[in-house]
């Protein structure tokens, strides 16, 4: 199984109220030095086949799926990347 | 400005209804071969100072902030990593 990660973030010019709320609360909680916070979505897709079998056509299909289904490209940017399958944990 | 990315995902053993809804819809939209979808949050933090100035103590503070404020560690895992500052766009 290959893991493909799709990150969806608001475009830089779009106001991010959630991110701003987090950023404004941080000093009150004692966390200084964070100039800006942007919040978005992360999708982890488990794709059949191994990472090496993920050819350009398969990645193009996933990009097309992300563009039509996971992101609203009017206000959001997205990135698609293949990640090693064992999830990085805290 | 250094960019630190905090990814927050539901723990593997926690049911992810949003991810399941996406995964079930994909075949109807003509996207086959996606065995599982997990949806989580991505935070992009712009931290004062450059990436090289981000020492272990600063990263430990950010990890502490993520643990107490960005993730619910009862049901979520999180990862913290330093990323190059120019955002990867679609």
From TrEMBL, chains A, B:
Q: What is its EC number?
A: 6.3.5.3
According to the record's subunit comment, the protein's assembly and interactions are: Part of the FGAM synthase complex composed of 1 PurL, 1 PurQ and 2 PurS subunits.
Q: Does the keyword Cytoplasm apply?
A: yes
NCBIfam families noted in UniProt: phosphoribosylformylglycinamidine synthase subunit PurS, PRK05974.1
| Alphabetical list of Gene3D superfamilies matching this protein | Phosphoribosylformylglycinamidine synthase subunit PurS
- Which UniProt keywords are listed? ATP-binding, Cytoplasm, Ligase, Nucleotide-binding, Purine biosynthesis
- Give the protein family: Belongs to the PurS family.
Check the record and name the Pfam families matching this protein: PurS (PF02700)
Q: Pathway it belongs to?
A: Purine metabolism; IMP biosynthesis via de novo pathway; 5-amino-1-(5-phospho-D-ribosyl)imidazole from N(2)-formyl-N(1)-(5-phospho-D-ribosyl)glycinamide: step 1/2
The record's listing under InterPro entries reads:
PurS, PurS-like_sf
Q: Where in the cell is it found?
A: Cytoplasm
Which purpose does this protein serve, as stated in its record?
Part of the phosphoribosylformylglycinamidine synthase complex involved in the purines biosynthetic pathway. Catalyzes the ATP-dependent conversion of formylglycinamide ribonucleotide (FGAR) and glutamine to yield formylglycinamidine ribonucleotide (FGAM) and glutamate. The FGAM synthase complex is composed of three subunits. PurQ produces an ammonia molecule by converting glutamine to glutamate. PurL transfers the ammonia molecule to FGAR to form FGAM in an ATP-dependent manner.
Catalyzed reactions per annotation:
N(2)-formyl-N(1)-(5-phospho-beta-D-ribosyl)glycinamide + L-glutamine + ATP + H2O = 2-formamido-N(1)-(5-O-phospho-beta-D-ribosyl)acetamidine + L-glutamate + ADP + phosphate + H(+)
> Which of the seven top EC classes does this enzyme belong to?
ligase
* Name recorded for this polypeptide: Phosphoribosylformylglycinamidine synthase subunit PurS
Q: Which SUPFAM superfamilies does the record cross-reference, listed alphabetically?
A: PurS-like
